[in-house]
C-alpha cells in the first residue's frame, strides 16, 4: 500500500530529506508528484529513526518542497523484461529512448540482484572469441569470466568496446543464443551516437541491449544503470538460456557518482574521497557474472574503466583488480606509436585462460604458444633497455632478433584494424609466424613435438 506525504523538509543535491516518516523501508522506490502533475522517481537510501533520505533519480532541481506529493511504494525498483528488449535502447533507469515504445511484460524484476552463490557456480571453461588477436591469443576471455579493461583518458577504449560487441562470438551450436548487454555510464552524446551507429552498421543491433546514461543525465542514474543492465542479463541468461556478454563502461564514472552521493550524504570518506563501502558495492556488481548449475545460460563481464593519470594503483582499478579474474591494460606509449588496440600484454592477464584453451577448446598448441610469446616479449623489453645504453649496433645477433621480433609483434600482431576480425586459428598461425624470427633454440617454452608440427611442418 502506498503511503503519501504532501511535503518535504529539505533538498541537498540529488537528495530529498523528510522528517516524521513512519514504516519506510531501505531501498524502496518513492514516487514524487510535482505541481504540474509530472513525476520523478527516487529510492530510500538512509533511515534514521523517523528521518528518511531519498535519492531522486532525476535530481531535485526545480522541486518546490511545500508543493510536492511523496508516495512511498513499499517496493524496490523493478523493471519489465522480456525477449523483446533485444535490439532496444534504454536510458539509465530502463526507460525506452529509441522511440519503439514501452516493454510490455507480465513480470517485473528487482534490479537489486544478489551475487551468485559460490556453491551454485559452474567453473568457466569455453572461450569467447573477440576477433582481436592480443585478447584471443594471450589473455583469452572465458565464458562466465569477469575480465576488465584498464584504460586512460584519450585512449581508444570506446572503439575497443564497440569492436568486441561487433565481433564477439561463441563456438558451436550456441552461437544463435549469444547476445550482448551494453551499459554506458556518464558518456557524451557523440559517444552514445558512435556506439548505436557502429552496432547498426555492423548489423548486430538485433542481438544488443543498450542502457545509456549520458554525461548530462542526473548523476544518481549512474548508480542504477549497471544494475538494470545486469538484471536484464540475468533474465536473458537464466530464464531464456542465452549466453550474455555484459560490457560496463565507464566504471570510473560509476565510482565518481558513488563518491558524489556519499559526500552529499555526509558519509566519512575513504581513499581519495571514495566511500569506504566501494569495494563491496563493486563486488555486488562484478559477482553477478558466471554460470549456475542447472542453467544453460551464462553471464560474462567486461567492465571498462579509465585510470586517472594512468595510475593503476588508483582505488577504482585497484579494487576492481581484487574482485575480477585478470585485466586487459591499454598502454599510452603504444597508442602514440599508432598501434590499435594499444594493449600492453605484459601487465595483462586472464586468470581463467589456462582452463579454457588447448586441445578441447582452441588448439593443442595454444597454451605453450602463449607462454612463449609472453616470455619472448618480456625479453624484448630487456633488450630495448640494453640498446638504449650501448646502442642497437652493439647488440648480439640473438638480441637483434629479439628487437625485430618486438617490432613485428607490435606492428603485425597487436596492431589490428577496427574492422579486422581474426579467428583463433589465424591468431595462432600469426604467433608461429612471428616466432620464426627467433632462433629455434630460444623457443624453450614450447613442446618440441609442437615445434616440429607447426614450425617446421
From TrEMBL:
The record's gene field reads ntpB_1
According to the entry, every stretch annotated as the ATPase F1/V1/A1 complex alpha/beta subunit N-terminal domain falls at 13-74
Which keywords fit this entry according to its UniProt record?
A: ATP synthesis, Hydrogen ion transport, Ion transport, Transport
CDD domains assigned to the protein according to its UniProt record, in alphabetical order: ATP-synt_V_A-type_beta_C (cd18112), ATP-synt_V_A-type_beta_N (cd18118), V_A-ATPase_B (cd01135)
Q: Record's family?
A: Belongs to the ATPase alpha/beta chains family.
The Gene Ontology biological process terms listed for this entry are: proton motive force-driven plasma membrane ATP synthesis
Coiled coil (residue ranges): none
Does this entry carry the keyword Ion transport? yes
Task: Please report the name of this protein according to its UniProt entry.
Answer: V-type ATP synthase beta chain
PROSITE patterns recorded? ATPASE_ALPHA_BETA
Instruction: Report the residue ranges that make up the ATP synthase A/B type C-terminal domain in this protein.
Output: 355-454
Domain of life assignment: Bacteria
Q: Per the record, a Pfam family?
A: ATP-synt_ab_N
* Protein function: Produces ATP from ADP in the presence of a proton gradient across the membrane. The V-type beta chain is a regulatory subunit.
Domain annotation ATPase F1/V1/A1 complex alpha/beta subunit nucleotide-binding: ranges: 131-350
Recorded GO MF terms:
ATP binding; proton-transporting ATP synthase activity, rotational mechanism; proton-transporting ATPase activity, rotational mechanism
Amino acid at each position: 500500500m502506498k503511503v503519501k506525504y504532501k511535503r518535504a523538509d529539505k533538498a541537498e543535491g540529488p537528495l530529498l530529506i523528510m522528517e516524521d516518516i513512519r514504516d519506510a523501508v531501505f531501498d524502496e522506490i518513492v514516487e514524487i508528484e510535482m505541481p504540474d502533475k509530472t513525476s520523478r522517481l527516487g529510492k530510500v537510501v538512509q533511515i534514521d529513526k523517523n528521518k528518511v533520505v531519498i535519492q531522486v533519480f532525476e535530481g531535485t532541481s526545480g522541486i518546490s518542497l511545500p508543493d510536492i506529493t511523496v508516495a512511498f511504494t513499499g517496493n524496490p525498483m523493478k523493471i519489465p523484461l522480456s525477449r523483446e528488449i533485444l535490439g532496444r535502447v534504454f536510458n539509465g533507469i530502463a526507460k525506452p529512448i529509441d522511440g519503439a515504445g514501452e516493454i510490455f511484460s507480465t513480470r517485473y524484476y528487482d534490479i537489486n540482484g544478489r551475487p551468485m552463490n559460490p556453491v551454485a557456480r559452474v567453473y568457466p571453461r569455453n572461450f569467447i572469441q573477440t576477433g582481436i588477436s592480443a585478447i584471443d591469443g594471450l589473455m583469452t576471455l572465458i565464458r562466465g569470466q569477469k575480465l576488465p579493461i584498464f584504460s586512460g583518458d584519450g585512449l581508444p577504449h570506446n572503439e575497443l568496446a564497440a569492436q568486441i560487441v561487433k565481433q564477439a562470438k561463441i563456438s558451436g551450436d550456441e552461437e544463435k543464443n549469444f547476445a550482448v548487454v551494453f551499459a554506458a555510464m556518464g558518456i557524451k552524446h557523440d559517444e552514445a551516437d558512435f556506439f548505436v551507429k557502429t552496432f547498426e552498421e555492423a548489423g548486430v543491433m538485433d542481438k544488443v541491449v543498450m542502457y545509456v546514461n549520458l554525461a548530462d543525465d542526473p548523476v544518481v542514474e549512474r548508480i542504477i544503470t549497471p544494475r538494470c543492465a545486469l538484471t536484464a542479463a540475468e533474465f536473458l541468461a537464466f530464464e531464456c538460456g542465452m549466453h550474455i556478454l555484459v560490457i560496463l563502461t565507464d566504471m570510473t564514472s560509476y565510482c565518481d557518482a558513488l563518491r558524489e552521493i556519499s559526500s552529499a550524504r555526509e558519509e566519512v570518506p575513504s581513499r581519495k574521497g571514495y566511500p569506504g563501502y566501494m569495494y563491496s558495492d563493486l563486488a555486488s556488481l562484478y559477482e553477478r557474472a558466471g554460470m549456475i548449475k542447472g542453467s544453460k545460460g551464462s553471464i560474462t563481464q567486461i567492465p571498462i574503466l579509465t585510470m586517472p593519470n594512468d595510475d593503476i594503483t588508483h582505488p577504482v582499478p585497484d579494487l576492481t583488480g581484487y574482485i575480477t579474474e585478470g585485466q586487459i591494460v591499454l598502454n599510452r606509449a603504444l597508442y602514440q606509436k599508432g598501434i590499435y588496440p594499444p594493449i600492453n600484454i605484459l601487465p595483462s592477464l586472464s586468470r581463467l585462460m589456462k582452463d579454457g584453451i588447448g586441445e578441447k577448446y582452441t588448439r593443442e598448441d595454444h597454451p605453450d604458444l602463449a607462454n612463449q610469446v609472453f616470455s619472448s616479449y618480456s625479453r624484448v623489453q630487456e633488450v630495448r633497455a640494453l640498446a638504449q645504453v650501448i646502442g642497437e649496433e652493439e647488440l648480439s645477433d640473438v638480441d637483434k632478433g629479439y628487437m625485430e621480433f618486438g617490432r613485428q609483434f607490435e606492428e603485425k600482431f597487436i596492431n589490428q584494424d577496427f574492422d579486422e576480425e581474426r579467428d583463433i586459428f589465424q591468431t595462432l598461425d600469426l604467433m608461429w609466424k612471428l616466432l620464426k624470427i627467433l632462433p629455434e633454440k630460444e623457443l624453450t617454452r614450447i613442446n618440441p613435438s609442437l615445434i616440429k608440427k607447426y614450425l617446421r611442418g
